[in-house]
Amino acid sequence: MAAPAKTLLDLVEATDNIPLDFDFTTLYRLYLSDDPRPHGILTPSNVARLPWTPDFKINHSDRTVHLIDTSAGASPGPAFSASLQRIVDACLSQKIFPQLNGQHSEHFRVLGANYPVTLERYVSPLFGTVSLGAHMTAYVGSGRDMKIWVAKRSAKIFTYPGKLDTSVAGGVKAGDSPLECIVAESDEEASLDRDFVRQNVVATGMVSYMGNSRRNDTIQPVVLYVYDLQTPEDMILKPQDDEVESFTLMTVDEIFEAMLGGKFKTNCCAIMIDFFVRHGIVTEENEPNYLELITRLRRRLPVPLAPSKNTASS
């Protein structure tokens, strides 16, 4: 179990755990061909370990990694994706990174690229490209008296086994929208009717942060789309896959106690705090770190989140 936290800000800082004044020039930056904007950030140790191919030009003096366009005049997206995939395949076949568990994973898009570029989810932290996810908080009632559906992760799941989680969450795969991710995960994880979710879910913004995994020596920007779903009192969330062990309706006070006690998956605390701010439960009057909490929940990231203004993705 994680060490207990003293404040809500402690919980946010455990997720957004890169100092605000961090010098990103100490890291390597990943560039896509002629795009002058970095699309990933890599630690020196991972640059040294990754099995680079001739498709990549590494400059150690200015700490840059340039992915060369091998498309021969076609749209660069598939060529970029193929070059990245060759690195992924080599990582797995050579068993370079134990945290990959020897497994392929879903393809996620490289957010902000001028052309559709994809990279496997498990490998994306090594390249420091944006991790894109979606979380939904399902709740009954309103205000301080509301109750929230909290998932307990399976004890057999690869990451954060047995931890408490938001009602529904998932990574946004390449080709999916955040909304379609939530609709699908609501069905697969919580047995919620897809049409009900699609008609009643409310998009409420996003949470962004910079996450540092010291165990794997990775630094990754993260964007999480946030959704709310108010459910009828007689609607029950039930596990439907092997990732969730159970669902429990918890009071606001029970959730605060569980978060501060280290029982939640780390980044889910940021989602819950954002929910409590938006619903007027955490306010300027009762939270001494109110303004810093809000700003830390929407951190400016060192990589682009959209294509260049004058470039149309194809």
TrEMBL record:
**Molecular-function annotations in GO:** 8-oxo-dGDP phosphatase activity
Supply the Pfam families for this chain.
NUDIX (PF00293)
Name the source's superkingdom: Eukaryota
Which Gene3D superfamilies is this protein grouped with?
Nucleoside Triphosphate Pyrophosphohydrolase
**Which ranges carry the Nudix hydrolase domain?**
131-274
Q: Where are the transmembrane segments?
A: none
**Coiled-coil region(s):** none
- InterPro entries, alphabetized: NUDIX_hydrolase-like_dom_sf (IPR015797), NUDIX_hydrolase_dom (IPR000086)
Q: How is this protein named in the record?
A: Related to thiamin pyrophosphokinase
Lineage of the species this protein comes from: Eukaryota, Fungi, Dikarya, Ascomycota, Pezizomycotina
